[in-house]
Specification:
The complex is a heterodimer of chains A (about 400) and B (about 600). Chain A has helices at about 5-15, 60-75, 90, 100-115, 125-135, 145-160, 160-180, 185-195, 290-300, 305-320, 360-370; strands at about 25-35, 35-45, 50-55, 205-220, 230-235, 245-250, 260-270, 275-285, 325-330, 335, 340-345, 350-355, 375-385, 390-400, 405. Chain A is of the alpha+beta class and about 400 residues long. In chain A, the strands form three sheets. In chain A, strands 9, 10, 11, 12, 13, 14 and 15 form a seven-stranded mixed β-sheet that branches. Helix content of chain B is about 65%, strand content about 0%. Chain B has helices spanning about 10-20, 30, 40-60, 85-90, 105-115, 120-135, 140-150, 160-165, 170-200, 215-220, 230-240, 245-255, 265-275, 280-290, 295-305, 310-320, 330-335, 345-355, 360-365, 370-385, 390-400, 405-425, 435, 450-470, 470-485, 490-500, 505-525, 530-545, 550-560, 570-590. By secondary structure, chain B is mostly helical. Chain B is elongated. Chain B starts with 8 loop residues before the first helix and ends in a 7-residue tail after the last helix. The chains are: A alpha+beta (about 400), B mainly alpha (about 600). Chains A and B meet through helix 4, helix 7, strand 4, strand 8 and helix 10 of A and helix 1, helix 3, helix 11, helix 13 and helix 15 of B.
Chain lengths: ~400, ~600
Amino acid sequence: MSTRLRDAAIRHLRSLGAATGEGAVRRLTMDIEVEGRVEMVTLSLRDGELQCVSSDARNDGPHVLAALQFVTGMETREDSSPPGSLVSIAAQSPEKSPASELADALDDLLTAITRIGVDKAQHAPSVDAALERLTGVAPKPTPSGLGRFIGRLQQAIRSADLRRVARLLEGASQLADALRAVTPAPEAEQRIGAWLGARPGSKPEVELLYDRTMVEVGREWLPGTERASLERRYLIDTHSGSIYREDRLRNANASLGPCPRQVQVGLAEVEAGPNPRRIRVLQYEVEPDVPAESWDRLHQVASQSFVEVTEEYRRTLQASPSLSEPFALIAPFRIERNDVFKAFDAEGHQLVLDRSERRGAVLAFYELLAQGIEPSWLAGRLTDSGTTVCLSPFAMGTFDGKYTRL
Amino acid sequence: MAHNSDTDSDTLELCLREGIAGNEYADPREALGCDTDTDDAEVARALVRIVAAHDLAQIGIQSVQPEAARHPSVRPPTEVTADPSFLGRLSTTGDEGISVERIDDVSTLLAVLRAGSRRQRRAALARLRERLVDRRLRQSDEVRKAVQTISKLRDVELGYELAQLRAELPGAPGRAARQEHEQWKRLAQRTQFEIRAFWDGQSSVDAFRGLPGDQRALLLMRVSELSDLVVHHITAIIEGSDGCVPLESRIGLITSLRYARDPRLVPALVAVLEAERGELVASAARVLGGMDDARAQPALAERFERSFVAEERIALAGALGMHGDLRGLSELRSSLGEDHPKLPLQALEAMESLGSPDSTDLVTKFLDHADASVAIQAARTCARIGDGRALDELTDRYNATAVPALRAAIEDALSAIEARMELRGEEAATIDWSEVGNKPVPRKGPRDSLPAITLGWRDYFMGRLWLLLGRVTWAIARFESAAARRDDWAAPLIGIGMAFARREQYALSLPAFRRAIEVDRLRIERNPILVRAMAKAFLHRAEQVEREGRDDVARGLVGEVLTLDLRRAPGTVRFELKRKHDVLRRGEQGNVDSAA
């Protein structure tokens, strides 16, 4: 590529807006069509250097060249419009509903990542631009479902985890379809609710719970549009064994109390959506000291069949590949602790720990095992390493009614 | 669009991994059953759908993947440069190699207790405890020496372990320790009651907010003996899920847990590292640094790698150093090497765990620092590094300074370096204590006349008598009269200070203590009862004025008392004074926040 062309482009980008004080240009993104193929080209100025890349992952392809020629060509054109009279693109384009804009942004994100490839997506300006556009058109503040999707997607892209990226994008694609539907089916409405919260005019499907005893067994901070933007607490109904998640955005309110705690729920709302279902505790009493009987109850309601746990995990992910982050409470029939921890159910099926997440918790769990402590139940987030379902441990109980938060 | 079912899923995954644009070897259109001119957006959706469906269908088909079943490595590799000396190789536990658990020689254990790292000192104390359990051994000279040393030891970092051990000793130290434990039990019971009332909705005030600083320090010193209810309440405050405790008190509580080792606190502290910023992170890191828990190091390392705020990074580097992870050392060294380093106090504190003899020069230059607290910290860091080359600098500074606290810190440093050199097998430096010790202050003016002495004693005894009878005003008048008769007589001034301090009239006790310090500082510093009453009076008065919003005055009071040699004051009071000093200093400099 001609150095003169690049220098001219740098000069022109620096001059844009500088004269009028309207703000400096740091990045330009444009769709360029060459020989019938449209690519998104991003020109960005970083530390005085011009970086050019097109969505076909080329730095010096015909689309990049055309974009540079277009930019440098602008230098010679006279701008006859008076300052401040620019008409926004949104105003020029035909009116689009916010839902439709969001659906387009999700599709653009999917296309940008698929074009550039998962391996190169982390540093691709086109993916950054698509994510920015997505957060730009999303409702403000960013709903927790969408925020969590963005956080998980960025994490999966950073670790180049192809399978996870595919699942997340598939979920995004399903949401885009639901948003475009003129009269969404109940399932689509539920999906939209899980991602974006209830829409005005829609009737969210909510289950009311009365007089329940729940025990919080774990909590964690999760990334959304920013690091650690969402706190998630895992509550287990000691009667039914149902697992709920209580999500709290940073600086927002949720039920009070430490972890672990026993919550006497007078009234709570449970949203329909991905597992574990989201709960809003409305009337409650907190006991920071969980009675031994409640720990016994957890042991009794814990899953004892790992085949069922695996099936449930798969079903949940198929229903909501982007948002579901299943959590499980298991009671191993027996454990092996020779070198590696393995939990077995009565039929001999195994479950192992996920070593890639919550490394400290896994190490602490192994230290407890080394001290001879035998778990009667284990609570943790379910993950998978391709074909194997694993458990990322959050808490364990022992036969003597003791609890350890990991 | 009809998907070709025979398509190799690996090819489609390759397409998604490599990207479908500009990749002539991986065009999935045919495999997906698309036309060659199908739009990229449509191809992308089809590709993602098929890859995801195939992936989801695979879940659970293999019960245990070999990769998933691997044992996690116990500790991640770090850039630790091993210290080949005896102390460098001395582990706290274990049957292999050199471990404190296997040392029988009491002198060696005592040397480790003076010169070792915090973990080594704890282990040495635990080993001594085992040895002292055997009553028959108590008769031996070396064990008697150990008992004496333990009775006199004023190591704030080992407050809990020392209290446990002293409670098992015979005689006065044992009685005092058992009495303190009883006091703790009553305090813990009262706190538990208040916490229960708080969560039952009968009280809206957090139990820790009303506690005086020294009592809170005493309560939290034995945090591992507290019930689950109290510890869970503490974790709720640490995580900010109690609903009423303000940020400043939250930071205060975490700093009060500085030397706690209870594993029940770890998840909440890790959550603070993950989600919070600024001083909260720095305080949590300092607590986690001292925890022997597998969760601490990964959380500290993860936060260190993404933190960009100096305050956080220094605290995280120091905490990692305590876990044997030296990744922050070079950064700290370059920071301290600057002409005007940022946060020198915190950096020197972090060097306690990271420093090696290579860092001695960097640290000793701060012994001359204009801020006495920085100079005192430099002396403490020298003690932990234990390099004999610092002896001359320390001795010179000792003779030059007029700040008693700095002299005390240097005395401790000299003693620790001496012990370390002994453990390294080096020729122990001969420290001429007569040369570096407190020299007698030359008396000013003529001696008091015999009538002045006699009348002075008469007034003094009358004052004591009135005090016994509860006539405080008359007693104070007599003490004042006694003090006026003789210029250099501290006893009546101490009497006034103690009388007010016992009645919790701290504002009135301070002038008397100040005058007594001016007249005879050593007498107060060397008497545990006097130094305790004086330090508590300053602390409680600082708390009072702080509550009134006069932080500058509180800062001045705490700073003033910390220039004295407080080694004979109770560890909890010293700990609380230091903690309050740090908090008030931070208030002076303004909070440093960062993006998490």
